């Protein structure tokens, strides 16, 4: 479904984005565009990946942060800047400030991953941990700005931020002039708004599709009623687009220029991250691969011409990556967990493993439970974690165990 919301002329125009592109020359990278044979075969159209995960600081956020801070008046620069972020915006502000010689203070949630905190500090920011969730961190940063006079650098709700992010759209048109559809992840909306302004001004025939995590999808209901509304407790692993309310400035642009907003499940995000790692050899965070998740979920929507999917970032905590990969393998039928009961006697486990060997299931882990009161006196419960080759192989494993007389409990 296409949403169309009558709005005034967008507050960001093509000239703003072209000016930002000149400002960013030598600062941000013109990131690579990589083809994907797997996604191309799936959709029936050539699919290209715009690799903002390979941008400096690991995401597109440097673009908007630099343009915003570079546009400050001398007295504002002297007062310093402050930002609130769980990761990508924090690093973008920290590096942009250092490059421009501006003092920066960045508030991050208490539970922010240590690698992101360390990276933000290494880029030159004074990092302060405050709040358990990003909303509380925002309040702490705004209070600091009010108290000290530092300029608050919003992650998405400012025209300079949107202009900087829009340079991604200009690069896409230069690198893939035949593009017919562009997929962009949406949190607050700064990146999607900027890309839409750039692309629609030069190529109004190109579809721009926004993608949100289903558990943090504030844009579809907001677009239906015509104004930003908040959702309670957004829930998704994709913290880069885990935003409970659209930004006022990007909302107006997205309502006017973005052709559609789709949502994707957590399983699709996991599968997309795994695909990027295995097939494209790219480390992409869950928010960054939301566009790939959309292609995997509804490939039939993207035929009829070349597609560009923006990989917006690659800053993923290694511990989270480990969990997501396991989840993605399970969602793709590549990882199977089973519980079953066997006789508590010598050789019973060897017999079970022999059955699994015949069907070429790789055993990753085995654990025994002997003390459950539900077990019989001569029974033991065995929990198995297997590496499999897909859904059909999982079904073959289950059939083989059943045929050998084993009762699978889960």
- Major sheet description: 6 strands, mixed
The total of beta strands comes to 13
Radius of gyration: 24 Å
What strand order characterises the main sheet?
A: 1-2-10-7-8-9
Q: Report the sheet-strand fraction.
A: 15-25%
Task: Give the % helix.
Answer: 40-55%
Mean pLDDT: 91
Q: Unreliable runs, pLDDT <50, ≥5 residues?
A: 1-7
Q: Summarize the helix and strand pattern as letters.
A: HEHEHHEHEHEHEHEHEHHEHHEHEHEEH
Which structural class do you get from the secondary structure elements?
Answer: alpha/beta
Give the CA-based shape: globular
Distance between the termini: 39 Å
List the total number of helices: 16
Structure report:
With 410 residues, the protein is an alpha/beta fold. 43% of the residues lie in helices and 17% in strands. The chain is built from 16 helices and 13 strands. It has helices at 14-24, 37-43, 61-70, 74-79, 88-100, 114-122, 134-148, 159-175, 190-202, 219-225, 248-257, 266-279, 290-297, 318-331, 348-358, 391-403, and strands at residues 33-35, 47-51, 81-84, 104-108, 126-129, 151-152, 181-185, 207-213, 260-264, 307-311, 335-343, 362-369, 379-387. A six-stranded mixed sheet has the order 1-2-10-7-8-9. Strand 4, helix 6 (114-122) and strand 5 form a beta-alpha-beta unit. Helix 1 (14-24) packs across helix 8 (159-175) and helix 12 (266-279) packs across helix 14 (318-331). The chain is globular.
């Amino acid at each position: 479904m296409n949403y169309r919301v009558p709005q005034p002329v967008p507050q960001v125009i093509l000239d703003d984005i072209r000016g930002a592109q000149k400002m960013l020359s030598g600062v941000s990278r013109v990131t690579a565009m990589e083809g994907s044979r797997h996604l191309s075969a799936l959709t029936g159209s050539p699919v290209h990946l715009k690799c903002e995960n390979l941008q400096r600081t690991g995401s597109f956020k440097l673009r908007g942060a630099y343009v915003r801070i570079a546009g400050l008046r001398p007295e504002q620069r002297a007062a310093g800047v402050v930002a609130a972020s769980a990761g990508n915006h924090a690093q973008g502000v920290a590096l942009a400030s250092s490059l421009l010689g501006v003092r920066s203070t960045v508030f991050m949630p208490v539970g922010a991953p240590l690698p992101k905190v360390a990276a933000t500090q290494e880029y030159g920011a004074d990092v302060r941990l405050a709040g358990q969730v990003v909303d509380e961190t925002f309040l702490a940063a705004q209070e600091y700005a009010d108290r000290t006079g530092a300029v608050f650098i919003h992650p998405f709700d400012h025209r300079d931020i949107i202009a900087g992010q829009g340079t991604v759209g200009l690069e896409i048109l230069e690198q893939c002039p035949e593009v017919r559809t562009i997929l962009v992840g949406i949190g607050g909306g700064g990146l999607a708004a900027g890309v839409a302004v750039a692309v629609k001004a030069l190529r109004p025939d190109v579809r721009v599709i926004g993608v949100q995590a289903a558990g943090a999808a504030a844009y579809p209901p907001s677009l239906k009623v015509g104004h930003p509304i908040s959702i309670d407790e957004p829930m998704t692993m994709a913290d880069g687009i885990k935003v409970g309310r659209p930004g006022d400035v990007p909302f107006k642009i997205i309502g006017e220029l973005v052709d559609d907003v789709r949502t994707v499940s957590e399983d699709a995000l996991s599968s997309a991250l795994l695909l990027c790692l295995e097939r494209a050899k790219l480390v992409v965070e869950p928010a960054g691969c939301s566009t790939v998740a959309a292609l995997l979920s509804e490939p039939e929507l993207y035929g009829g011409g070349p597609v560009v999917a923006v990989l917006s970032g690659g800053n993923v905590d290694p511990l989270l990556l480990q969990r997501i990969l396991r989840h993605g393998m399970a969602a793709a039928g590549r990882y199977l967990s089973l519980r079953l009961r066997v006789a508590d006697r010598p050789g019973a486990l060897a017999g079970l493993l022999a059955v699994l060997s015949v069907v070429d299931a790789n055993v990753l882990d085995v654990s025994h439970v002997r003390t459950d009161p539900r077990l019989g006196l001569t029974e033991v419960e065995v929990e198995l974690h297997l590496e499999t080759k897909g859904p059909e192989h999982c079904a073959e494993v289950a059939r083989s165990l059943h045929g050998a007389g084993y009762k699978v409990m889960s």
